[in-house]
Amino acid sequence: MKKLAVCIAMISFVAFVSCKDTKKETKTEEVTQETTEKVIATVKEIDFGLESKSESTATGKVSFREVDGVVTLEANIFGLTPGMHAIHIHEKADCSSPDGKSTGGHWNPTFAQHGKWGATEGYHKGDIGNIEADEEGNGSITMQTDEWCIGCGDTNKDILGKAIIVHQGADDFVTQPTGAAGGRVSCGGIIE
């Protein structure tokens, strides 16, 4: 029994020493994983032509592009008389009448007074402004706003189903409800 106790004691000692000698240090490395998020912008775009109205020769091309809630309008008009011409968004995308009046009045979903875009006194959502036509009758305008959207369904912002009208004269930004801009010389429907 004494021999057995000594053997067990020796085996325990050897095992203890062996375990102690083979003990390894473990290092913990922090690994930082970078997450790359891919952001996909929502882009909507409508391009269309403008046709002559009221026996004018005015035509053009219009583009609306919406990226992340901001709409950019680019309009290039040709065949105008030199000088200033009003451009507005009207209520209906119906350019069927020869005088363009089938588009209805200015698009004004908030029932504001007519005025210059951005004026503190108020303005229609369709009160874009004026285009200056050069000696060849060409003019253009570019603007951006978050007050419009393309097909979002918000009746106070959605331009789908409306029309672009270019007028014979300049918008005076005062006369209600049209700005005394004269006849409608070019028309295009904002439709998909």
CATH topology: Immunoglobulin-like
Order of helices and strands: HEEEEEEEE
- Strand order in the largest sheet: 5-4-7-8-1-2-3-6
Terminal CA distance reads 100 Å
Structural domain tally: 1
CATH class: Mainly Beta
In helices, the fraction of residues equals 10-25%
Largest sheet: 8 strands, antiparallel
The number of E-state strands comes to 8
List the helices and strands and how they pair.
Elements: H1 2-22, E1 43-52, E2 59-67, E3 70-78, E4 83-90, E5 127-133, E6 139-145, E7 162-167, E8 184-190
Antiparallel strand pairs: 1-2, 1-8, 2-3, 3-6, 4-5, 4-7, 7-8
Describe it for me?
This protein has 192 residues and is mainly beta. It has one domain (43-190): Immunoglobulin-like, CATH 2.60.40. It is 11% helix and 33% strand. The chain is built from one helix and eight strands; from the N terminus they run H-E-E-E-E-E-E-E-E. It has one helix at residues 2-22; strands at residues 43-52, 59-67, 70-78, 83-90, 127-133, 139-145, 162-167, 184-190. Strands 5-4-7-8-1-2-3-6 form an eight-stranded antiparallel sheet, with no helix packed on it. A hairpin with a 2-residue loop joins strand 2 and strand 3. The longest helix is centred in the N-terminal third of the chain and has 21 residues, at 2-22. It starts with a helix and ends with a strand. The model is unreliable at 4-9 and 13-28 (pLDDT under 50).
